[in-house]
Description:
The complex is a heterodimer of chains A (150) and B (66).
Chain A: H1 10-30, H2 44-49, H3 58-74, H4 83-110, H5 114-141
Helix pairs in contact in A: 1-3, 3-5, 4-5
Chain B: E1 2-3, H1 5-11, H2 16-23, H3 27-34, H4 42-52, E2 60-61
Antiparallel strand pairs in B: 1-2
Helix pairs in contact in B: 2-3
Amino acid sequence: MKNKLLLPASFRIAGLVLLLPSLALLIAWNRGFEFGFLDTRGAAAANLVGFFNDYNFTNELAILGTLASLTFIAFARVAHEDERSTMVRLQSLQLSHYCNYLILAGLVVFVNGINFLLCLFALPFLFLVTFIVIFYSRWYLLPKFAAHEE
Amino acid sequence: MKNSLKVERAIMDLTQGELADKIGVSRQTIHAIEAGKYVPSTVLALKLARLFGKPVEAFFMLESTD
C-alpha cells in the first residue's frame, strides 16, 4: 500500500538546509534583528491596504521557514517506504500526540497568563519536533541493533 | 502469530536483503517479521506465498492467543 500523502525524499534534505537559517533568524529576531526589506513602514502599497502599514515581516519569515522545514523533515518519504514505515509513522504520530497533550496538561497546571498563550503558540512546533524525534529514532536507530542479523 | 519465514528463506538461500528486494520492502521489515515484531499485511503475505510457492498458512501460523 503506497502512501501518496508523503513528500518526496529530497524534501528532507531541503528541510534540514532550511531549518538552520530559519532558527538562526528566529533567534536573531528575538534579539532585535529585523530585515529592512521586510519593513512596510512608509511603503505605498502597504498604506493602500492599511492593515500592514506599520509592520516588519522578519518574524513571519522566520516562523514560516521553521514551520516549513519541520514539516518537510517530518513528512518526507524514507529511503525504503513500505507498509511497516507507514505503521511506524502512525504509531509515532500517536505517541507525539500523547506527548503534546501531556505537555499541555502540564502547561494548564503550571503556567498562567500571557506565558500560557506563548507556550500554546510553541505547541504545534513541538508536535513536529517530537514526531521527528520519535519516528526517526524508531525507523533508523532501532533497526541498527539488528543490523548484523542476516 | 508465529511464522517460519526464516526457515523458508534459508531453504531458498536468500539473505534478508535479497528477500526484501524481491518483494519490495526494507530489510528491516523482513527482520521485524521474522522476529515476530511485525505482522505483515495480506498483500505482503500473499507476495511471500507467491515467492515461496506455498500457501500463506505454510509459514504463518495462528497462536492460541490470537
